[in-house]
């Protein structure tokens, strides 16, 4: 599992609110989702994986572009909310689990990391990159707030960590956030 203090912090946030980052109502989040989907492209993706899906607001917008979508989050309350957000979508599955320790046995052609990388340590980001490389995934899109975080890493530092292990091919900068695309080398797995 990730560091206990990170899990405790995330559990506390979800105990205090069913939408800790105002994903459902914030115009800023809506604009970020629009830009994210623009960067992801129309698909269709054979099998997309969203790591750290939160309450599923971005995932439910991504779902129509995917033949199959797996979402995961390490906090049970987030997973319950995400399952409600995508209820009735038979091609979508929501898993309880932490990256990189509990990644599912899938070979996605898109991995979406939206506002999740800075919760990981540099060594967890390295393990995540190794998993992505062996999975032979098509593309990785990372979205990160560029302001200060309460975590060890900022969004920009977390992107730099991932870029030490995977080729960074594109960066789009916006007010308050950035979207980066990585095109992993094909692994042997
Ligand atoms: C800020 S929310 C982003 C939610 C969603 N991706 C979005 O952009 O709307 C970050 C989510 O990542 C989850 N998370 C943090 N670290 C994680 C990890 N190591 N594995 C899985 N989920 C994680 C948190 O529980 C939280 O729900």
Automatic annotation (TrEMBL):
GO MF entries: S-adenosylmethionine-dependent methyltransferase activity
UniProt name for this protein: Nodulation protein S (NodS)
Coiled-coil stretches noted in the UniProt entry, renumbered to this chain: none
Domain of life of the organism encoding this protein: Bacteria
One Pfam family in the UniProt entry: NodS
GO-annotated biological processes: oligosaccharide biosynthetic process
